[in-house]
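Students often ask why we bother predicting the structure of a whole assembly rather than each chain alone. The short answer is interfaces. A chain on its own may look different once its partners are present, and contacts between molecules only exist in the joint model. In this exercise we take two input lines together and write out one structure for the complete complex. Read the inputs first and try to guess which parts will touch.
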Amino acid sequence: ETGVTQTPRHLVMGMTNKKSLKCEQHLGHNAMYWYKQSAKKPLELMFVYNFKEQTENNSVPSRFSPECPNSSHLFLHLHTLQPEDSALYLCASSPTDGVFTDTQYFGPGTRLTVL
Amino acid sequence: AQKVTQAQTEISVVEKEDVTLDCVYETRDTTYYLFWYKQPPSGELVFLIRRNSFDEQNEISGRYSWNFQKSTSSFNFTITASQVVDSAVYFCALSDVMDSNYQLIWGAGTKLIIKP
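Now the answer. The structure tokens for the assembled complex follow.
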């Protein structure tokens, strides 16, 4: 595997389900990110992890819970979601510690549909 | 506050035509970075270029070229001899240290359709 991988690629869940999205980067990077991309809206940064420590949480509802066990893996745990949470969830990583000079590299995304 | 404007929501051209995607940015910082990403229908955001504010040289990479003009706060992207595979949504983004907490400021994207 190379680059940034995400699983699953598609997910349909009910509002009472609990599911997790997984992201893995094979680039040796130290920072990882979760983004939400909804139709007709700009890309929204949700969480940032530098060296496994969460450094940003952009007022994301608690029904989204991130986990970063090491610098290569990032999870997004989902529970009791709402239909408006349906979107493309993108994971990214960057080389250093998330400073503004970094280039972010993205995975293919998970297309989430909440029924 | 920082802002990135991609005024062209959608552009449609016939294959082999040249096409330019506009990007205008706002920042109070003197040190910043600009990026272009491509998002094909598969969904993955593909990094195309990063340019820092001190390097105003234009860049060419195959059929792709970028024109950075600090005087007009623009970082435009031109595809020469477009191909159907260039069809995608293209995003311009800005990163600076002032007020941003090291976050990327994204434009709304331009959907490019290349017709055969």
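Check your guess against this: Chain B is about 0% helix and 55% strand.
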